[in-house]
Specification:
- The complex is a heterotetramer of chains A (270), B (412), C (56) and D (763).
- Chain A is of the alpha+beta class and 270 residues long.
- Chain A has a four-stranded mixed sheet with strand order 8-1-10-9.
- Chain A has helices spanning 27-35, 121-125, 167-179, 193-197, 214-218, 244-249, 259-269; strands at 13-18, 55-60, 70-75, 100-102, 109-111, 132-133, 160-161, 203-207, 224-225, 237-240.
- Chain A has a single domain, classed as 2-Layer Sandwich (Alpha-Beta Plaits), CATH 3.30.70.20.
- Chain C contains one helix and no strands.
- The radius of gyration of chain C is 19 Å and the shape is elongated.
- Chain D has 763 residues and is α/β, with parallel strands linked by helices.
- Chain D has four domains: 5-41; 116-183 and 405-578, Rossmann fold; 189-392 and 587-615, Dimethylsulfoxide Reductase, domain 2, CATH 3.40.228.10; 635-762, Barwin-like endoglucanases.
- In chain D, 31% of the residues lie in helices and 18% in strands.
- In chain D, a hairpin with a 4-residue loop joins strand 27 (689-693) and strand 28 (698-705).
- In chain D, helix 17 (434-440) packs across helix 19 (464-473).
- The chains are: A alpha+beta (270), B mainly alpha (412), C mainly alpha (56), D alpha/beta (763).
- At the A-D interface, helix 1, strand 2 and strand 3 of A face strand 3, helix 4, helix 8, helix 9 and helix 25 of D.
């Protein structure tokens, strides 16, 4: 967890998910499964032991028919910058064996499967339930092992895993850029599998620090919000919604509180 | 009665067959736990009912609870060797044994509780010094070593072993420098009890557990250390009392118990005041700052506000008040009621700090998470109890655990 | 836990944490060594010179 | 030294303890600890995927009729991932979860890996592996036998599609053989297609230019739930202009409804009435396109036929559907109907479309006609942003089939399903009628041999029990399925086709698209197992049957056939993978129609009016009969479609099932959606187990309270309740088709059932 302050070109890769565009189709989940060698079991209906690096939640406004509204909410790992925005994410700081780390070059929170010994402290620390435990050994029936990607190592039983923002794609893109003697990656050179898989283009991915990237502008929209901002986890996944109730559902508010004002206060504070 | 050379001189012990029967029963329970343990190691944590929302569950609670109630060992050491309450020497052996049992079990449970037990040592080798769990693991192992060192001289006092000159001297010499070990133990205990408090307190993504400013450090740390020091002695008293009931003889003089109970009472009172301050600040400042009201945290049928009342009033102020009053202490019914309540109180606190933390929904659109342990989890949690019974039985039968036993139970 | 593990850093947190750890470990180690060595000498020196069981 | 028991124990203990302590000083235990940890990091049962060169292959997805372009990533020639192809004009890079899951079909446990011959009883799952020679010979022998007995018409073939070269090849086979019974599975397009045919006189796939339309009035079409070409629909939704309005009308808040500009709950089955109610307002307020109605339409006003008989016009019919009345029928407030009509009529390019959910059930012709009338009222036909009938691309040109006498006799027999008969003159296929016809036949089954490819009728046909009974009466069933689906598992022979990623095939993109696009599915990997292209199987059988049949197939194999078919386009096709034919509309206005009147017929004269109310062919609203007694069955059960559940002949891949919410499926039990108010009346709570009974069947369900469904209506998804495939899909939830039976549309004979009465009792 050594912080490097001298990183001139430090990136903060992040995501903006337009909930008004998300149809809940699940392509992001499936795209992620196949990109990241996510295993599957015969029964995946217990969502609390089902490995999903990005999970689409279905939320409703709670109003009775016919005023009911539904919103789908895809949740990858939020890649929190943590309190004070310097990498003190809830999970990284608690891992006893440095099996998860904050990369100051990209802002991505890594997970080292061969280092993790499965204490699950990081899972207890993560309010987003982004971290999943391998309760079972993964099994790929018939010839399914043949579709596994060599870019992501399959995990073994007993370790925690989570969304990596497809870090292997970053590495491949960076290697290519290096080979071509370029310093900077182009915006479209490094995209996550879910962003690419989203058939409605609801997921935008890029460097939140880079003014030329789409996410930079999108995150400043008045309709943008992050999940559980009040916990000061500083997630790098932003959401857009033109529905007030959706924006309110993204965090906890006391009855009298107005999300926009609270958000302002929280963001001023740090 | 036939004297066996293994049994200390001048004390009376039950017959071999009685003892064997007792041990067989305890061993059967132990075997059940061991079977479950092997099953878990062999097949993995899918044998439990834990899940991604409930990554910390019964075991971590058991861990935290037995470390808290095992706190009698370090605190009696602290009182005996550092403060100089020499009377407590009459109970410290037993406190050490209980501590030894608790800590060995805590380590065992940690070894079961991890997904990759064969890599468990990474916690030491690849230590992240910022993690509370690292601190816990280090201090726990070191303090367990200290407890073992404290236990060894007692084992060596077994009449048979004591005949070996080297062992006799070793016992003697270790006794001689016990204050150093005890001091180290106290030092380590302050740290790991404290960091256990921090385990939940630093979870700033978990509004139920998280505390702010001084309420995280030193407060959460202090609360755990203090509560362990306060309630650990109660557990020592409780186990002594149970042992006395089972062996049907007085083993420790009432004055010693009274002293221990009185100190414990004051510790409980001070602890529970600190805890109340913490709760009030959390309920009225910290939680609303994150958009929660106190009642949001107690909105489930299982986790209702009664829990908070039970923890602070019923199992906090009440035992504390009983124990600090002379009349309360001297009434054996009230004394034992207080002692039991205090033990329940600290276990409840650890339960809340682990299981309720996991149960409370953090998202406005999520429901409470529920969890019910599998039999494998229960069996491995019962295992320490059987193991404790076995160790205490063996220690009591073959070692001079209670210095006052001979005096209190003269053999004519 | 050792300077050759890559997590190791020469920073304040490591100094405090590992300092306390190694300090405690040294005391335990030294104490134990002392007791063992002294017992070896004691038992070689004169057998049971100290038979009184009530000396603790 | 005398070693007695005591000293042995003492020294023994000392030795062991000392040894243990001593060994700690050696590297052994530490090395062992380290090795053990390293072993856990490289468990031999945790796979290590082989690395290699990354390449990409473009192809077309044929898992559903959508025909989206795919881009397959390969490592060392091994397909590892499927992504949407940005170059395909339909989906432009977007892909549904099923398309992305594709490799699980290729490598999955439900593949049939060699030809199989049934050993035990049907459906028992006992098979014998046989050689291709043996399997094909056996089937050819059976077919030859039936021909010899002069009953070639007793052979039927069920396919999933009738477009592209493979269905054509099979059709050609049947013609040469002598059976008219080529039957394609039905879908909602059939009804819309027929409605368009009746009104416009054009046979073609309905094309909806949703890309350019600015107001979409969807009568329950699951535009974002898997309707049409899903990749295209998602892509469109993501890239639409904010001004585009989507109005979704259906009883349940589907994903489409959730994303629509407005969701209007409607009593199920009354969509046709609403369409006429909207027409009423449009006509009453003179909001319709006068130019179109007056110059290019027929039957709007009352008219008199050549025999001097007076007929009501559409306007008069619509007059009967005043908002008050429609409000009573549909449950939609009057004001809402009026404002909806105004908004629709005032939009610049409004489209009205129908066909519920994925569009797997055709639905009533009345309803489709009423909806098409709305498009006509606003004149948005054969225009950019409107609807049109897309003629099939006509690249398939083969030498004519010469048939022998037996075949000729067979071909003169009426179709078994009644399609094209006097009763249903405009319908081409009526698979839904088949089970009943077989079951009610006296003596032996009129179908003696059935071949099934790209279809899974034992799962997809309504009234599973009746379908199964009918299949049991067919003495010889051959499946060409690459997967062990329900139909395959009840077959006598399985002649497994290559999976879609292993075979060559032209893929006309279908359903709703207003572009003529034909894709080429190219094998991205050599066949993994002992399978055979279904086209090759038929060519092989043709050659085995000899004579005229053999002569009808002068090609060596399917590839040669396809090459000849595509002729000069083959090279371009093979290179590009996609042939795109823009649907060029004659300028300025393509208001040309092939009806008797030469106009758009609000009064469809080609429709058999005898079966209609008041003997009028005008679109009207008659409630679609719904099975079940109101007193016994107080609730109404409707199905719903989800993009995460495949309900057609291709079933879910494990990845898709993994995405299914626990409010849809929990363990092995499916959840039933019910409004909390209705649940309260029945004293049912979230998660309760209940028995769902309909006149057709029974199922155990769990209760899921959902505010987004009309009170009194209960809904369950299609696509669950499989009995075949692998443990990753079988026995999960209930197959909706087990609970519902078909209802025949009087005009088309197509199934128009939208739901069934039901009751719920606590288990």
């Amino acid at each position: 967890m050594k912080e490097k302050n001298n990183h001139k070109h430090a990136k903060r890769y992040g995501m903006v998910i337009d909930l008004d565009k998300c149809t809940g189709c699940g392509s992001c989940m499936v795209g992620c499964y196949s990109e990241n060698n996510v295993p599957f079991k015969t029964d995946e209906t217990n969502k609390l032991d089902s490995i999903n690096w990005i999970q689409v939640y279905k939320i409703t406004n709670g109003k009775p028919f016919p005023n009911t509204e539904v919103c789908y909410l895809p949740m990858p790992c939020m890649q929190c910058d943590g309190v004070g925005k310097h990498g003190h994410s809830p999970c990284v700081s608690v891992c006893p064996a440095v099996a998860t780390d904050y990369d100051y070059e990209t802002g991505i929170v890594s997970q080292i499967y061969t280092r993790c010994f499965g204490c699950r402290y990081c899972m207890a620390a993560c309010p987003y339930h982004a971290r999943k435990f391998n309760w079972w050994d993964p099994v790929w029936p018939a010839d399914m092992e043949k579709y596994l990607s060599p870019n992501v190592s399959p995990r073994m039983r007993g370790v925690v895993e989570k969304c990596s923002f497809c870090f292997h794609r970053y590495q491949l893109a960076r290697d290519k850029a290096y080979y071509e003697k370029r310093e900077e990656l182009k915006e479209n050179e490094y995209q996550t599998a879910c962003a690419e898989a989203c058939p409605t283009g609801a997921i935008t991915f890029g460097d939140l620090n880079n003014k030329s990237h789409a996410v930079y502008k999108l995150k400043n929209s008045p309709n943008a919000f992050r999940l559980l901002e009040r916990l000061k986890t500083n997630p790098k996944v932003y959401y857009l919604s033109n529905k007030r109730w959706v924006r309110r559902a993204g965090d906890n508010y006391l009855a009298h509180e107005e999300p926009a004002k609270i958000k302002q206060k929280v963001n001023q504070h740090h | 009665m036939k004297e066996t050379p293994l049994i200390p001189a001048g004390v009376k012990r039950c017959s071999t067959w009685q003892f064997s029967l007792w041990m067989t029963a305890a061993t059967a329970v132990l075997a059940w736990g061991v079977y479950a343990m092997i099953l878990i190691w062999w097949k993995g944590l899918n044998q439990t009912n834990m899940n991604d929302a409930y990554g910390f569950a019964l075991w971590i609670w058991a861990d935290l609870a037995i470390i808290a109630i095992g706190g009698g060992a370090f605190f009696s050491g602290f009182l005996t060797y550092i403060i100089g309450k020499k009377e407590l020497k009459n109970i410290i052996n037993f406190a050490v044994i209980i501590g030894f049992i608790c800590y060995s079990c805590a380590l065992l449970i940690l070894a079961i509780d991890i997904g990759q037990p064969l890599r468990g040592w990474f916690i030491f080798w690849h230590a992240n010094v910022h993690s509370m769990l690292t601190e816990v693991a280090f201090c726990l192992s070191c303090y367990f070593a200290v407890l073992t060192i404290e236990f060894i001289p007692l084992i060596l006092e077994n009449p048979k072993l004591n005949k070996k000159p080297f062992l006799h001297h070793l016992s003697h010499n270790m006794h001689g420098i016990m204050a150093i070990f005890a001091a180290t133990g106290v030092f380590l205990s302050f740290f790991h009890q404290g960091s256990l408090g921090g385990v939940a307190g630093v979870l700033y993504g978990r509004p139920f557990a998280f505390r702010e400013h001084i309420f995280i450090w030193p407060w959460t740390f202090f609360l755990f250390t203090w509560s362990a020091a306060a309630c650990g002695p109660c557990f020592t008293i409780l186990v002594t009392w149970i042992t006395e009931k089972i062996t049907r003889k007085k083993l420790v003089k009432q004055s010693v118990i009274q002293l221990f109970a009185k100190i414990s009472g004051w510790m409980i009172i001070t602890y529970i005041i600190a805890k109340t301050i913490d709760t009030v600040y959390w309920a009225f400042v910290t939680a609303p700052g994150m958009g929660f009201t106190l009642m949001d945290f107690y909105a489930s049928p299982t986790y209702n506000i009664g829990i908070l009342f039970a923890e602070i009033v019923l199992c906090g102020f009440i035992p504390g008040l009983i124990l600090i009053t002379k009349r309360g202490r001297e009434n054996s019914f009230l004394l034992m009621t207080a002692v039991i309540l205090a033990v329940i109180g600290v276990c409840l606190n650890r339960w809340v700090m682990v299981l309720q933390v996991m149960a409370v929904p953090v998202f406005s659109f999520n429901d409470w998470y529920t969890y019910w342990p599998s039999w494998q989890e229960v069996a491995t949690t019962v295992l320490p109890v059987a193991y404790g019974i076995i160790v205490i039985s063996l220690a009591h039968r073959y070692l001079p655990v209670f210095p006052q036993e001979k005096e209190l139970n003269p053999i004519d | 836990m050792f300077p050759f593990c890559f997590e190791w850093a020469w920073d304040m947190s490591h100094v405090v944490f590992m300092g306390a750890l190694w300090y405690a470990l040294s005391i335990i180690g030294a104490g134990l060594t002392f007791a063992i060595v002294k017992s070896v000498f004691d038992s070689a020196g004169g057998g049971h010179d100290d038979q009184d069981p009530g000396h603790h | 030294m005398k070693i007695d028991r005591r000293s042995f124990l003492t020294y023994g203990t000392a030795l062991v303890l000392g040894g243990a302590a001593g060994s700690m000083l050696t590297p052994a235990p530490w090395k062992l600890t380290d090795d053990v940890a390293i072993w856990t990091q490289n468990w031999p049962w945790t796979p290590v995927p082989e690395d290699g060169e990354i390449t990409y292959k473009q192809s077309v997805c044929t898992l559903c009729p959508g025909g989206c372009g795919i881009n397959v990533r390969l490592v060392n020639g091994r397909p590892i991932k499927i992504e949407g192809s940005k170059d395909h004009p339909a989906n432009k890079g977007s892909l549904c979860p099923m398309g992305i899951s594709g490799l699980q079909y290729l490598y999955g446990p439900s593949r049939v890996t060699s030809p199989l011959k049934r050993e035990g009883k049907r459906g028992e799952g006992k098979w014998k592996k046989v050689s291709w020679e043996e399997a094909l010979t056996a089937v050819a022998k059976k077919l030859a036998e039936l021909r010899e007995n002069g009953r070639p018409q007793s052979v039927a073939c069920i396919t999933g599609s009738d477009r592209g070269t493979i269905p054509n090849l099979i059709g050609r086979f049947l013609t040469a053989y002598g059976s008219p019974n080529y039957i394609r599975s039905a879908n909602a397009q059939d009804a819309i297609e027929q409605a368009i045919y009746l009104a416009q006189g054009k046979q073609g796939t309905p094309g909806f230019d949703i890309e350019k339309a600015d107001f979409i009035l969807s009568f329950g079409s699951g535009l974002l739930d898997g309707w049409g070409s899903p990749g295209r629909m998602f892509n469109l939704y993501g890239n639409q202009k904010p001004a585009k309005k989507i109005i979704q009308i259906e009883p349940r808040l589907s994903d489409t409804a959730a994303k629509a500009t407005q969701w209007i709950g409607i009593n199920p089955g009354t969509e046709g009435a609403l369409a006429l109610g909207i027409a009423h307002v449009i006509i009453k307020e003179s909001l319709y396109d006068r130019n179109f109605v007056e110059n290019y339409a027929f039957g709007f006003d009352d008219w008199t036929d050549d025999n001097g008989k007076a007929h009501d016009g559409f306007a008069k019919m619509a007059k009967k559907f005043a908002p008050e009345k429609v409000s009573r029928i549909t449950g939609i407030p009057k004001a809402e109907i009026v404002s909806l009509a105004r908004a629709f009529a005032r939009a610049s390019k409004p489209i009205a479309l129908n066909g519920r959910g994925h569009g797997s059930v055709p639905g009533s012709i009345d309803e489709s006609l009423a909806v098409q009338s709305l498009n006509a009222l606003v004149g948005n036909i054969n225009k950019p942003g409107g609807i049109s009938a897309m003629p099939d691309s006509n690249y398939a040109k083969w030498p004519e089939v010469n048939i022998d006498e037996i075949a000729s006799k067979g071909m003169q027999q009426p179709r078994i399903d009644g399609a094209g008969s006097e009763q249903f003159p405009n319908t081409r296929f009526l698979l839904n009628r088949l089970p009943e016809i077989i079951n009610s036949a006296q003596g032996e089954s009129p179908i003696q041999a059935l071949m099934v490819t790209d279809a899974n009728p034992l799962y997809t046909l309504p009234d599973t029990a009746a379908t199964k009974k009918a299949f049991d009466r067919i003495p010889f069933i051959v499946s060409f399925s690459p997967y062990m689906d329900e139909t395959a598992s009840h077959a006598d022979y399985i002649l497994p086709n290559h999976s879609y990623l292993e075979r060559l095939q032209d893929v006309p993109t279908s359903t709703g698209i207003s572009l003529q696009v034909t894709g080429l599915a190219k094998p991205v990997v050599k066949p993994l197992y002992d399978t055979k292209h279904v086209g090759d199987s038929f060519i092989h059988m043709a050659k085995a049957l000899g004579g005229f049949i053999e002569n009808a197939f002068p090609w060596d194999d399917y590839e040669a056939f396809l090459k000849e078919t595509l002729n000069d386009q083959w090279r371009k096709f093979k290179r590009k993978g996609v042939i795109e034919i823009e649907h060029n509309l004659p300028e300025p206005l393509a208001y040309t129609f092939n009806t008797v009147s030469g106009k758009f017929e609000f009064y469809p004269t080609a429709r058999n009016s005898a079966t209609q109310k008041e003997n009028s062919a005008l679109p009207s609203y008659t409630p679609v009969p719904i099975e079940g007694d109101v007193q016994r069955f107080k609730l109404v059960l409707i199905p719903y479609d989800s993009i995460r559940l495949a309900s057609g002949y291709m079933a879910n891949a494990p990845f898709m099932t993994k995405t299914v919410d626990d409010t849809v499926l929990k363990n092995q039990i499916g959840l039933l959606e019910i409004n909390p108010a209705t649940a309260k009346e029945l004293s049912l709570k979230e998660g309760d187990t209940a028995i769902l009974t309909t006149p057709k069947g029974k199922a155990t369900v769990k209760i899921h309270l959902y505010e987004g469904i009309m009170p009194g209506i209960i809904a369950m998804p299609r696509g669950l309740g499989h009995t075949a495939y692998s443990e990753y899909l079988a026995d999960k939830g209930t197959n909706f088709n087990e609970l519902i039976g078909p209802i025949e549309d009087p005009t088309s004979g197509l199934d128009m059932a939208w739901g069934i009465r039901a009751k719920l009792t606590r288990a």
